[in-house]
Every structure is written in C-alpha cells, then in structure tokens.
Amino acid sequence: MIQSDEIKLPAEFQVALYENLIQQLEKKGGFQHVYRDGDTRAASTPDVVVLHSTVSGFKAGSERARQVTTVAGATSITVHCRFTDAKGQSLLERDVNGKVRFFGNNLKATYDFAKKAARITRENFSASGESKVRKHKIDGR
Fold first, then answer.
1. SS3 category, 25
2. 38 contacts: CB under 8 Å, gap ≥ 6
3. What order do you get walking across the sheet with 137-139 strand by strand?
4. Whole-prediction pTM
5. 3-state secondary structure at position 43
6. What is the DSSP string of 70-129?
7. Which pLDDT does position 126 carry in this prediction?
8. 95: burial class by Cβ within 10 Å (0-12, 13-18, 19+)?
9. Which of 18, 93, 108, 121 qualifies as a cystine partner to 29, CB 3.0-4.6 A?
10. What is the C-alpha separation between 37 and 2, in angstroms, rounded?
11. Which regions in the chain score pLDDT beneath 70?
C-alpha cells in the first residue's frame, strides 16, 4: 500500500491512490506483469522493480469551489516514489504530483498521479522506454 505516515490522508484517497496506480501501471506502465503488494510470485521474478511510495503532501480541495471559479478549490497530492531492484538498490527517486484543478471529483487527483507515475515507469524501465534497464516487472509497493 501507499504509505502516508505523516500526512493525514482520508481512507478513500489511500485506496484510490493504490488502485489507480495498479490500473495505470497495467495499462500504460510498459511491464509484462504488475504484482500487488504481498504477491509472493514477485520474489521469484529475477528483474523485479519495486515501487516504494509515500505521500509527502496533500491539499484537500473543494469540488463546489471548482465549479464556481477556476482559481480556487484545487485538490493536490504529492507522492514520493522510490524505485528499487529486488535487493533494495535504488534505481530512481522522484516526487510525483496529482492534481484536479477544474471540474471533477477530488479523487481525480489520484488518477492524475497514477497516470504520471505510469509514464515515469514506462520511460525509465520498460523495453519500449529510453532506459538501458530492460524487461523489468514492478511490485505495487
């Protein structure tokens, strides 16, 4: 699961972050397999890439305020993503922001985060990306 130790994150945001992340990694992350946290099959995968994610910022917005004006009510979430190999060696670290500024449910910020995180994994770890690292799989942690 996505950690949020210091940031008080509503439960629905925590669940939406994880589920949207898994969904986007499966669709657009560029991996053959995406393993959920706790899936024992990931341990036997030789080139696994593990994603450790921690919420580092959260601003709850207002759907009502966004309907009235475009300058107020934005929801934003920042997640620190650390990608490691199976041995825990750091491969990449990045803060990824998710936002909903105009119309839409507050949880849309979690979807925006997931799309951006999937793009980062595709660009850095998939066979179709620019990286030298090839044929990796990712664990949803």
1. helix
2. none
3. 34-35, 137-139, 48-59, 75-85, 90-100
4. 0.80
5. helix
6. SSS--EEEEEEEEEEETT--EEEEEEEEEEE-SSS-TTHHHHHHHHHHHHHHHHHHSTTS
7. 73
8. exposed
9. 121
10. 10
11. 1, 63-73, 102-104, 127-141
Q: How many CA atoms lie within 13 A of 18 on its CB side?
A: 18
Query: Which residue in 42, 41, 59, 61 sits closest to 50, CA to CA?
Result: 42
Of the candidates 56, 77, 49, 57, the one whose C-alpha atom is nearest the C-alpha of residue 140 is 49
CB-CB contact of 98 with 110 (8 Å): yes
Site of tokens 């995406």: 34
Cα–Cα distance measured from residue 82 to residue 91, given in angstroms and rounded to the nearest whole number: 8
Residues for the chain: how many in total?
141
